[in-house]
Design goal:
Layout (H helix, E strand, L loop, with lengths): L15 E10 L2 E11 L4 E2 L2 E4 L4 E3 L14 E5 L6 E6 L2 E3 L11 E3 L11 E3 L8 E7 L4 E10 L2
Parallel strand pairs: 4-12
Antiparallel strand pairs: 1-2, 2-3, 5-10, 6-7, 6-11, 7-8, 9-10, 11-12
The protein binds 2-acetamido-2-deoxy-beta-D-glucopyranose (NAG) (2 copies).
Length: 152
């Protein structure tokens, strides 16, 4: 017997619909994930958090190329200035960072060599909700991660 509990914290942006999927792994239906389908058909995997939580916004290079010597830009759509976290010249750079993210963002330094440029965001607030863009200019690669925040 399976029980599914789905909690949607915040109203979805227009154009999003939801589906919950149960995948079969080794004959056991135990892997559950939500996915979010954008109106134009592309899939997104949103991240859910409650206020005060620490979250990881995933972003990685599929080919496991080291990102140590690359520039990594985390920005948030519709934010001015848009910079959430910037990594360049082999280190984190906080210039032009939006003040509301001060002291709350980091990359996983040990993971950069594996092409993992996921962003850690601590002490999430309601106003952190939105679309985050991870962009690697050298490779012209980008992904967008949607963050939903609910009151804890
Ligand atoms: C679909 O929409 C998403 C989010 O707005 C966008 O990133 C993506 O490029 C679009 N895909 C196509 C095929 O238009
Ligand atoms: C990237 O690093 C974070 C932190 O160590 C980890 O939680 C996540 O699973 C890693 N992602 C991949 C694809 O390895």
């Amino acid at each position: 017997m399976y029980m599914c509990v789905c909690v949607i914290f915040t109203p979805l942006s227009p154009g999003f619909t939801w589906s919950v999927n149960v995948m079969e792994r080794a004959g056991v239906h135990n892997v559950l994930y939500t996915q979010c389908r954008v109106a134009n058909g592309s899939l997104q995997y949103p991240i859910f958090a409650l206020t005060g939580d620490d979250v990881i916004l995933p972003c990685f290079l599929k080919t496991s190329v080291s990102a140590k010597n690359m520039v990594v830009e985390w920005t948030r759509l519709n934010l001015t200035p848009e910079n959430v976290h910037l990594y360049r010249d082999n280190r984190d750079s906080y210039e032009e960072q939006h003040p509301s993210y001060k002291g709350r963002t980091s990359l996983f330094n040990d993971e950069l060599k594996n092409g993992n440029v996921s962003l850690k965001l601590t002490r999430v607030t309601l106003s952190d909700a939105g679309s985050y863009r991870c962009f690697i200019p050298t490779l012209k690669k980008e992904t967008t991660v949607q963050l939903f925040v609910g009151e804890s």
